[in-house]
Amino acid sequence: MFQLFPLDKISTYSRPFYRPFSGSQSAFLPAFLRVTVHLFTGLSPGHSQPFYRPFSGSQSTFLPAFLRMEIVHVYTKLRSEFGRQCLFSDRPAELLVDVSPDPNLALQFIQKTRRDQAMQASRDMSEHQVNTERFESESRGINHLEGGWPKDINPQEMEQTIRFRKKVEKDEVYINSVLQLGSIMEHCIRQNNAVDIYREYFEDEDEVEENQEPPSAKTINVFRDPNELKRTVTDLSWRPDGARKLAAAYSCLEFQKSCRGSSLDSYIWDIENPNKPELTLKPASPLVCLDYNPKDPHTLVGGSYNGQIVYWDTRRGGTPVEVSSVEQSHRDLVYKILWLQSKTGTDAFSASTDGQVLWWDVRRLSEPTDQLVLDPCREGNLDRAFGAVSLEFEPTMPTKFMVGTEQGLVVSCNRKAKTPAEKMVCTYEGHHGPVYALQRNPFFPKNFLTVGDWTARIWSEDIKESSIMWTRYQMSYLSNACWSPVRPSVFFTVKMDGTLDIWDILFKQNDPTLSLKVCDDPLYSLCLQDNGRLLACGSQGGGATLLEVCSGLSTLQKNDKSLLAAMFERETKREKILEARQREIRLKERSRSEQSREEEVGPEVGDDSPHQLITWTEKDFFSLVEAEQRRRSEREGRGQQEKDVCEEREEKNETTSAK
Predict the structure, then answer these.
(1) Eight-class DSSP state of 377
(2) Which residues does the annotated region (Disordered) include (predicted)?
(3) Are strands 543-549 and 217-224 parallel, antiparallel or unpaired?
(4) Alpha-carbon distance values, 384 to 151, 355, 373, 415 (Å)
């Protein structure tokens, strides 16, 4: 307990006045109950002695009662009452503070202007897609050939198996199970017989409208080149029997880039396992193109960087079965190779930038069976031949094929022609660069698709002068294209900026229906599966991206064929009219030029001798020069007249202003 002694006067003194308990009163109060009281004497300004007296022992000296100030209250509670609950009671309200309003403060009140403010409590959401790093995994399986027999029964012994079957058939549990299942099966058979599954109940009803979902495509897998030095995926081919196998050719096609140290292998991938190729193809030179045999899914043929043709049978592994000799092969890299429609299913033909198209029998690749030189003069001169970069063959037209060249021309050929000159039927000119893709429409073979420079064009065999439809010029170079095998109006293109464009020309012709950024590397190759649902794109960075398109782009829609046929027919007629008009204009110009030449030369002129040709040329040249001089003099005279008129107007204006 502290005892405090206040005084009458307060001065500047700051020592605490307290006394601790002694003896049995030696307990101290808690820190928060300690009070420091400043007690001062007021006898004189310089007096600073504290007025206090500590207690000691049993002595007790107290001040008078009027000076004593008690600030300690002792609360006593029995030990037996510790821990009991508190009993509360109600009491009336009690006013503690009553503050009256101040009118002066009310005059200073300013009302705050109201405003509306909205807050978004939910978080902004966005959808992102990324290709994660490949996780290395391995698939393992066990094939159990024979089962259901006890360990003491040999399945290879016929007598033991028959004896065991008879024993099981006599078992009561087996008999009861068969009887129970027999009643269920009998009920299903009667139900099946009661319903005619071949009856048409809704013959007059209209067909259900197709699903109008927005066009979309999603990435399923990415097959990356397992080598450290990444190569371009130059070609892709799907296995034709519906199996989920994809063959990819890898090569380095960049200009003046050395391929030393890079792998020569190409791979066959299982699309369910992107971690490891199913089979490694080992050619002597990097593969630029390859193609599965449509009649035998175990065989495929490829074209090499050094011009050789390679043939594989996957049942024998990745080593080539046949390889063409270097002397009888192409002189440059083989850009395209395709299988031909034949009885044996062993014929193929290839195209190269050396200007040759060669036919092969893969059973004997020692020399080609036929040859065509793409000489525009039709003389078989290999030095003047067009370099071939794409091929097209339609099985329904076994004698016709088409070749896309480096010069932007498409050459239509007939294999069964008697002479090499007759094999080149006609040419189509419409691209400023190499024709990297060439394919006929699977539903309308007379119309074919080409890709070169910055556009994709659709042609008709009947129109030689120009294409009937084309896309607008893109910002990036187009490298490949193909038709959808399911929808006749849909085709796909890939570009050098890594973008895949899906076009539906019945929907719109100026812009693609769907544009998808596949990767950052340029895309070079493109291939669709026969069902039109799976699509593979090969890039320069060595990745083959597998995509799945939506059902709207991979399902035949109602009236697709009829609408596209009408569109092709309309565009073909329009181009024919324009072609006839251009032909008429050229004919008139030719006749007009011939008539003017006859008038200038006169009737006495005979054959066109060199001297006469020089005379005509000089006369035409000087006449053009004189006409140009006359035009310039007339222009100068007209300009001088205009200048004089302007000066006269200015003089008149000055005279008027002076007056």
Answers:
(1) T
(2) 122-153, 588-614, 627-659
(3) antiparallel
(4) 77, 8, 9, 21
Measured between alpha carbons, how far is 259 from 244 in angstroms, rounded to an integer? 31
State how far the Cα of 270 lies from the Cα of 138, in Å rounded to an integer: 13
Sign of CA dihedral 146, 148, 154, 158: negative
* Amino acid making up residue 430: G
> Going by DSSP bridges, is the β-strand pair 309-313/478-483 parallel, antiparallel, or unpaired?
unpaired
Each residue of 195-224: pLDDT tens digit? 877 777 776 554 444 556 788 888 888 888
* Lowest mean pLDDT segment, chosen from 50-54, 296-300, 517-521: 50-54
- Counted residue by residue, the chain has a size of 659
Report percent pLDDT > 90 for the chain. Answer: 10
The DSSP call for residue 446 is: T
What is d(CA 526, CA 496) in angstroms, rounded to the nearest whole number?
12
CA–CA distances in Å: residue 280 to residues 139, 224, 232, 299, 566: 18, 14, 16, 14, 47
Taking Cα atoms as reference points, which of 439, 517, 427 lies closest to residue 480?
439
Q: Which residues contact 626 (CB under 8 A, 6 or more apart)?
A: none
- Closest among 66, 50, 129 to 516, alpha carbons compared: 129
The CATH T-level fold of domain 217-555 is Methylamine Dehydrogenase; Chain H (2.130.10)
Q: Which two tokens stand for residue 280?
A: 């490694």
List, in order, residues 6 or more apart from 413 with CB less than 8 Å away: 357, 372, 400, 401, 402, 403, 423, 424, 425
Rounded to 5 degrees, φ, ψ at 417 are: -65, 155
Other residues' Cβ atoms within 10 Å of the Cβ of residue 287: 26
* Alpha-carbon separation of residue 416 from 381, 402, 476 (angstroms): 20, 14, 39
> Locate tokens 């050719």: which residue?
249
Residue 412 pairs in a beta bridge with 402, 426
Residue (of 550, 535, 541, 548) closest to 522 by Cα position: 541
CB 482 within 8 Å of CB 492: yes
Strand-pair partners of 526: 537
Alpha helices in 24-157 (DSSP H): 103-107
Helix pair angle (172-194, 158-169), 10° resolution: 80
Mean pLDDT is lowest, of 35-44, 190-199, 337-346, for 35-44
250 and 266 in contact (C-beta within 8 Å)? yes
pLDDT at 653: 60
pLDDT of residue 66: 52
Helical packing angle, 610-658 and 560-601, nearest 10°: 100
Question: Closest Cα partner for 300 from 352, 338, 342?
Answer: 338
Q: What is the 3-state secondary structure (H, E, C) of 542-578?
A: CEEEEEEECHHHHCCCCCHHHHHHHHHHHHHHHHHHH
Contact, 297 vs 239, CB < 8 A? yes
Q: Which amino acid does the sequence have at 508?
A: K
CB 286 within 8 A of CB 304: yes
Strands 478-483 and 469-470, by their bridges, are unpaired
What distance in Å separates the CA atoms of residue 52 and residue 467, rounded to the nearest whole number? Answer: 120
Cα(427)–Cα(300) distance, integer angstroms: 31
